[in-house]
Design a protein that fits this description.
The complex is a heterodimer. Chain A is built from 15 helices and 2 strands. Chain A has a single domain, classed as Cytochrome c oxidase-like, subunit I domain (Cytochrome C Oxidase, Chain A). Chain A is an all-alpha fold. In chain A, strands 1-2 form a two-stranded antiparallel sheet. Chain A is globular. Chain B is an alpha+beta fold. Chain B has 3 domains: 105 residues, Helix Hairpins; 111 residues, Cupredoxins -  blue copper proteins (Immunoglobulin-like); 62 residues, Cytochrome c-like domain (Cytochrome Bc1 Complex, Chain D, domain 2), CATH 1.10.760. In chain B, helix 2 runs antiparallel to helix 3 and helix 4 packs across helix 6. Chain B starts with a helix and ends in an 8-residue tail after the last helix. Classes of the chains: A mainly alpha, B alpha+beta. Chains A and B meet through helix 3, helix 7, helix 8, helix 9 and helix 10 of A and helix 1, helix 2 and helix 3 of B.
Chain lengths: 547, 326
């Protein structure tokens, strides 16, 4: 026991300063905070880009933004939200929580961990500096299909910087993912078998495994694109015998699992929050864990459903339609198990719980619209329209971002030692919930009315314009909600209520240590006998008190 | 302060009310709750599939959201302390198997229906009585559509087709990816350079059907529109015989005027009505075939005849003489 207290790392004087200590830190908790904070800054940046787009689309024949800038906006908005917000913020949560949840002192490779954060930061800065490149930032969409993205149709360096940025971010994610896998596989507390790790850790296990499996394929596609642009090759240039569709396969073999990389950790967060605020165990731990594995596996077999209109052979369309539908089954299992978790519970509507319940409500809509898109003849009508924009925001905003906010409200006391304000938190939730549905629900209708994606303006009036205006108003309401979150954070940091070790009476090991935890995380660890070690301890204490 | 649950219910009722109000207004004009009213058998069968899926999706939506709301109201806290736990139920294998199995059955029902409809959507009808389908080539360019008819006639951005006649369109692109989409006549098929896709339609009503590019293709993606003009057989034949005389004008409007303005007065692209290059056939041909800087190679793949028509039109109608100030 005495040996444990002296594990504090030696730090020379020059590393004691406030800034330098953060810049040189290898502590998983500090790196986690850096990740989360940086992602939130990029979230604000990407959100501003989205608000500008909605302003431009508020009414017909609007010329608030030039057509070229508009194309930069949606390219950088998409790239930001995917590569600089959702993926890295989950890396932040995983960094902070995985070692605490499995009772480890740090991640397996702390220095590699620091490297992966700094690569992320510089990758993001590279992307935003590309606005100042010759001809501006990339404007060929977040997927960068050639020939549009080749050097003939996209001259200038914006596209090259986009590739460089994605390369940096890919290395960052890859290194981080290997780190998480090594940590989860090797550093679990005594007694913590695979069926006793928290469901969030399960989701990070699959998140990391998918990143390791699919990111190299993206890197291949991007490298070939870069060679086409800069070295005179023509992998994707049809005029010289290249194949433009090949790039689409490379991109979506990464791109679809990426969707699950972005949703599985959010589902993991929901699986942590729901039972705690329902005062019940998760309904069907194994079903939820295995459905995570199943979704991860199937996610690598569905990529060409992004390519139904390309004119693939019929048997491929049929295969990818069926595989895409199969994914709905494990997803449905999760939703039904979550509902069953709340059944006969003592539901406590703290803000974290509101986000979790909101997640179920809106994610279901995104899941159902996905079935229409999986049926490829229907996809032929709705693909590349606002219907897809609606579907994918119901999944990525209503899913991932709602999950992220649930996680922030839930773990804020652990991370910063203060409780986020509940009143502001609830206002934040309701404004975003309302604004979200107002923004994205009418976009289903716009898509069916024939509005393609990525058009900078439209000429139609009437209902077409009304839905667009509604959507723009909704985006403003959402922005207001997010602003309340910022106010909440500032107020909490000044005058928030101090948090005890375990303010929510939760189940998992991170609540066993102090809020915030000491640098070495735990003084002692209990022997783990179930997936809910902290609840086990509380019960043992209560029984001892009674006896 | 009212308890949080009641506030939540009030807001939910408001949201539902707003959605219903919106729905009823919208429904009056099929305002986006189903794809546009179809005017071709393939589009109609896609709509049937859409409706079929909607039935199941709607049912599941009501089931999940209803259960969620019911549980939220029924099992809310009601002032119980946090320490009060619900029953410690860890799962129920039989129940979980049921809600794994039923979705499988639903998906099987959806897939079967779609596969039943698929041949009628995908396969071009043989149309033996009419001597096979009418074949029209669709060539996508930044930022216009070019249509080539069996007799070699060409039109730009306006596809002419006879009513009640099976038309097969073969689609490709000369530059970047585009996507051919006329919602009332069927789904999207990408125009990808180096590849050829096809679709078909058989319009059941005279009139014009609007289409637009469905795959982001660059700065003028929003303006890359097409019109399908469905005519009687006589009108169609008459149009074919006059198409050649109109080629220069339609090329100007589709390929040039979107950027350079209807009179060449400049817009996104520079003013060209006083540019002497318009009178230099060779230099002009070089420029429009290969593009330069921001100007795309609009005439890539054009026949000499096409280039001649445009050059003649530019000289006659667009060129206003070099301004003396220049």
């Amino acid at each position: 026991m005495a040996a444990r207290a002296t594990v504090e790392r030696y730090r020379p004087d020059w590393r004691q300063g406030r800034v330098i200590s953060w810049a040189t830190t290898t502590d998983h908790k500090r790196i986690g905070i850096l990740y989360i904070a940086t992602s939130l800054v990029f979230f604000a940046a990407g959100g501003i880009l989205a608000l500008l787009m909605r302003a431009q689309l508020a009414q017909a024949n609007e010329h608030f933004i030039t057509r070229e800038s508009y194309n930069e906006l949606f390219t950088i908005h998409g790239t930001t939200m995917i590569f600089l917000v959702v993926v890295p913020i989950f890396a932040g949560f995983a960094n902070y929580l995985v070692p605490l949840m499995i009772g480890a002192r740090d991640v397996a490779f702390p220095r590699l961990n620091a490297m992966s954060y700094w690569l992320f930061l510089f990758g993001g800065i590279t992307l935003y500096l590309s606005f100042f490149a010759k001809y501006g930032a990339s404007r060929s969409g977040w997927y960068g299909y050639p020939p549009l993205s080749d050097s003939f149709f996209s001259p200038g360096n914006g596209q090259d910087l986009w590739i460089l940025s994605l390369h940096l971010l890919s290395i960052s994610s890859l290194v981080g993912a290997i780190n998480f896998l090594a940590t989860i596989h090797n550093m679990r507390a005594p007694g913590m078998s695979w069926m006793r790790i928290p469901l969030f850790v399960w989701s990070i296990e699959i998140y990391a495994a998918l990143l390791v499996l699919v990111l190299p394929v993206l890197s291949v596609g991007l490298t070939l694109l870069l060679l086409d642009r800069q070295a005179g090759t023509h992998f994707f240039i049809p005029q010289n015998g290249g194949n433009a569709i090949l790039y689409q396969h490379f991109f979506w073999f990464f791109g679809h699992p990426e969707v699950y990389i972005m949703i599985l950790p959010a589902m993991g967060i929901i699986s942590e929050v729901l039972p705690v605020f329902s005062r019940k165990p998760i309904f069907g731990y194994k079903a939820i864990a295995f459905s995570t594995v199943a979704i991860g596996f199937y996610s690598m077999l569905v990529w060409a459903h992004h390519m139904f209109s390309v004119g693939l052979p019929n048997f491929l369309n049929v295969f990818f339609m069926l595989s895409s539908m199969v994914i709905a089954v494990p997803t449905g299992v999760k939703i039904f198990n979550w509902l069953a978790t709340t059944w006969r519970g003592n539901l406590i509507f703290d803000t974290a719980m509101l986000w979790a319940l909101g997640f179920i409500a809106v994610f279901t809509v995104g899941g159902l619209s996905g079935i229409f898109l999986a049926a490829f003849p229907v996809d032929w009508q709705v693909t590349d329209t606002y219907y897809v924009v609606a579907h994918m925001h119901y999944v990525l905003f209503g899913g991932s971002v709602f999950g992220i906010f649930a996680g922030l409200y839930y773990w804020w006391p652990k991370i910063f030692g203060r409780m986020l304000g509940e009143r502001l938190g609830k206002a934040h939730f309701w404004l975003v919930f309302l604004g979200f549905n107002l923004t994205f629900f009418p976009q289903h209708m716009l898509g069916l009315l024939g509005m393609p994606r990525r058009i900078f303006t439209y000429q139609e009036h009437g209902l077409f314009q009304a839905y667009n205006l509604l959507s723009t108003i909704g985006s403003g309401v959402m922005a207001l909600g997010i602003l309340l979150f910022v106010v909440n954070v500032i107020r909490t940091s000044r005058a928030g209520v101090r948090a005890v070790n375990d303010p929510w009476l939760a189940d998992t090991l991170e609540w066993y240590t102090t809020s915030p935890p000491p640098p070495h995380n735990f003084e002692t660890l209990p022997y783990i006998t179930s997936a809910r070690p902290v609840r086990d301890l509380r019960r043992r204490l209560a029984e001892a008190g009674r006896a | 302060m009212p308890p949080p649950v009641r506030r939540k219910t009030i807001v939910l009722v408001l949201v539902l009310g707003a959605v219903l109000a919106l729905a009823s207004v919208a429904h009056a004009g099929n305002g986006g709750f189903a794809p546009l009213t179809p005017h071709s058998p393939n589009a109609r069968r896609i709509n049937d599939s859409y409706v079929w899926i909607s039935i199941f999706a709607g049912g599941i939506f009501v089931l999940v959201e209803g259960t969620l709301l019911w549980f939220v109201v029924r099992y809310r806290r009601r002032g119980r302390p946090r320490t009060v736990e619900g029953p410690q139920i860890h799962g129920a294998t039989r129940l979980e198997l049921i809600w794994t199995g039923i979705p499988v059955l639903i998906l099987a029902a959806i897939a079967s229906f779609v596969f039943y409809k698929l041949p009628g959507i995908q396969d071009v009808p043989a149309a033996k009585a009419e001597g096979g389908p009418l074949r029209i080539q669709v060539n996508a360019h930044q930022f216009y559509w070019q249509f080539t008819y069996p007799d070699g006639s060409i039109s730009i951005d306006e596809l002419h087709a006879p009513v009640n006649r099976t038309v097969r369109v073969d689609i490709t692109s000369q530059d970047v990816d585009h996507s051919w989409w006329v919602p009332e006549l069927g789904g999207k098929f990408d125009a990808i350079p180096g590849h050829r896709t096809h679709t078909w339609f058989k319009a059941d009503q005279l009139g014009t059907y609007r289409g637009r590019c469905g795959e982001f293709c660059g700065v003028f993606h929003a303006e890359m529109k097409a019109v399908v003009d469905v005519q009687t057989r006589a009108e169609y034949t008459a149009w074919l015989s006059s198409a050649a005389s109109d080629l220069g004008r339609s090329e100007w409007q589709g390929a040039c005027a979107k950027c350079h303005g209807p009179q060449g007065e400049g817009g996104y692209g520079p003013k060209i009505s006083n540019n002497a290059l318009l009178t230099q056939a060779q230099g002009l041909e070089q420029l429009i075939r290969n593009g330069r800087n921001k100007m795309p190679p609009v005439a890539r793949g054009w026949s000499d005849e096409q280039v001649r028509s445009l050059v003649a039109y530019l000289k006659q109608k667009v060129y206003k003489g070099t301004s003396s100030g220049g």
